[in-house]
Amino acid sequence: MVKLRLRDNELVGDAVKRFRKLVEHSGIKREMRRREFYEKPSETNRRIRVRAARRAKIQRMLGGSTGPSNS
To answer: For residue range 14-49, what is the model confidence (pLDDT) as tens digits?
Structure first.
């Protein structure tokens, strides 16, 4: 839960700006968008697999390894 206390002599516009940052950093906005529509479990799994495949492809293209090497 995001809580915001108005500071002394703080303008409402500044408080709104701070509130928006707090909401964005807490991930509430992303969570709301994710829950806006029902997503079937198979669609969720597919999305996760596609993201993992993209990540793996990028890693291969960059030639980076995530673990320590023995060479």
So the answer is: 999 999 999 999 999 899 999 999 999 999 999 999
Block residue for tokens 């198979």: 42
> Distance between CA atoms of 40 and 35, rounded to whole angstroms?
12
19 alpha carbon, distance to own chain's centre: 17
Q: pTM for the whole thing?
A: 0.53
d(CA 65, CA 58): 11
Type of residue found at 56: A
Structure tokens at 15: 């408080």
In a domain, 36, yes or no: yes
Instruction: Answer for the pair 59, 66: CB distance below 8 angstroms, yes or no.
Output: yes
Is residue 67 domain-resident? no
The number of domains in the chain is 1
Q: Which two tokens stand for residue 25?
A: 């950093």
